[in-house]
Amino acid sequence: MSVLFTSISESNPVKLDDAQKLLDPLGLTIDPAEAQDFHTLLAAVHDCAEGVAALPDYQPVSDQTKYPRENVRRPSEEEQVFGHAWAHRFLIRGTAQGGPLAGKSVSLKDVIAVAGVPQLLGSDIIPSWTPNTDATVVTRLLEAGADIHGTSTCENMCHSTSSYTSAQGTVENPHAVGYSAGGSTSGGAALVTAGLVDITIGGDQGGSIRVPASLCGCVGLKPTHGRVPFTGIASGDAMNDHAGPLTRTTLETAQCLDVISGYDGIDDKSLGSQKPGSTSFGATLQQTSDRLDGFKVGILVEGFEHDKVDPNVKNLVLTATRKFKDLGATIEEVFLPDHYHGPAIWTIQQRIAGAQTLLGQNTGRRGLYMTDMERARLPWTDDGFQRAFPSTKNVMINGLYLMKQFPDLYGKTANFGRYLSDKYEALFEKYDVLVMPTTPVVAPKHGKRELPLESLKPSMGLTINTAVFNVTGHPALSIPVGFAPAKEDNQVMLPVGMQIVGGLWQEEKILRAGHIWETHYDWKKMQYTTDKN
């Protein structure tokens, strides 16, 4: 406390009634006899804050001499693909000849910091801001020899699993114009699926890697919570933050995971991860048998029986799952009714923490805080709020309401999340992996910016099988397993994703299952059937 009483500056702006004004919205009052003392204390903390604000920030240094940013630009219409899949184009060359990702081309979801490259976050609530540091995953990709070709469009503030909400424009599904590419890693999924880049690094807080992978027809991995440092990536809720790769094959996903995983000395979420460079997921897949003898696969019944799961999707994923038996695995049905609680637990967590993040009030983690971004976007203005997509407005409104009416609820979701995690872990003592549809339907048609309910409708229900594993932290892989017809047109065939989930820190098992399945079967030749047998 002594630091607060050195002196009060003459220029201090705190007024006598400011302390009371801060308490007015809470219905609290200051005893008049105490008012002067609280004014003095508030003025002192203001001076303390001014002193801290004047200190230099401490950001990781981006090596732009070794890794210069070439020709940073917003893409022209001629450069754009699949509508508006690119956010910014540039080139950063990896220099490690013979590195594990040498020659690989990469895009980054436009929430991943790249020093000197404006970041849009899919929004126009505020002008773009320009990071002064590189995210950990960016540095690791470059050190492994990969070339980064740009940032790819993400959905508006990452608050959607559709692909029409970005203020920069709609992203089209690579298989059919007019249909969703999924979100919020929308642009990257389209680029990878089309072969325009080899790898996209996405962020997943409810399905934002796996949903677009499922709808577009590529591989997407949400690793175990903390496996990949989230340093330098815009957060929604630290409890649900995950970063991971989207690629065209499980082997490429494994090779990328080897590069980007491991504690970086900054992000406390990755404290439990192995030493960087110590994993060998890619090499293990290349050396493993092409059989799954002794492997136990659980068909999570609740993942198939939800009323939102389209029968064509259900039957195709069941058909794909049964093929594990031909590869030597044992297959059994597994029941976990608590699976159905996942979306509700995730919703409460994301609304409360999401609102706190939007308001600059999320605290309590050791890691890299992107202070330039906070200064750029805060405080909110009504003009900015009016430009926000309805999903962002809804997060703020819901979160403020929940914090006021249910003050203990966020803590309860954290506790119940541990309960769910323990329930799944008990299953993984018996089964190597659990399988279910990634998304309950194939890609829906794009929605329109209309009244909130209509605007949000295309995303509703897409995360019934994905969000729960953000809550529990389990690794989950989506691989394409065939095509099923669009809801609106039986002639439009769209990809179906199968989600393979493993125990905590057991990525090797889900990668093995996905790799062996895809090396034996050509998913592009598989289509739905109404035959359930």
Give an overview in words.
The chain is of the alpha/beta class. The protein has two domains: 52 residues, no CATH class; 456 residues, Amidase signature (AS) domain (Amidase signature (AS) enzymes, Alpha-Beta Complex). 33% of the residues lie in helices and 15% in strands. It is built from 17 helices and 14 strands. A twelve-stranded mixed β-sheet has the order 1-2-4-3-7-9-8-13-14-12-10-11, sandwiched between helices. Strands 5-6 form a two-stranded antiparallel ribbon. Strand 5 and strand 6 form a beta hairpin. Helix 6 packs antiparallel against helix 7. It is globular, with a radius of gyration of 24 Å. The relative contact order is 0.13. The mean pLDDT is 95.
Largest sheet: 12 strands, mixed
DSSP strand count? 14
Protein structure class: alpha/beta
Q: Enumerate how many helices there are, as a single number.
A: 17
**Outline, from the CA principal axes?**
globular
Q: Architecture of the largest domain, CATH level 2?
A: Alpha-Beta Complex
Radius of gyration: 24 Å
The name CATH uses for the topology of the largest domain is Amidase signature (AS) enzymes
% residues in beta strands: 15-25%
Determine the CATH superfamily of the largest domain. Answer: Amidase signature (AS) domain
Strand order in the largest sheet: 1-2-4-3-7-9-8-13-14-12-10-11
Indicate the CATH class of the largest domain. Answer: Alpha Beta
* Beginning-to-end CA distance, first to last residue: 73 Å
Mean pLDDT rating? 95
Extract low-pLDDT stretches: none
GO molecular function: catalytic activity
InterPro entries: Amidase (IPR000120), Amidase_dom (IPR023631), AS_sf (IPR036928)
Protein name: Amidase domain-containing protein
Organism: Penicillium arizonense
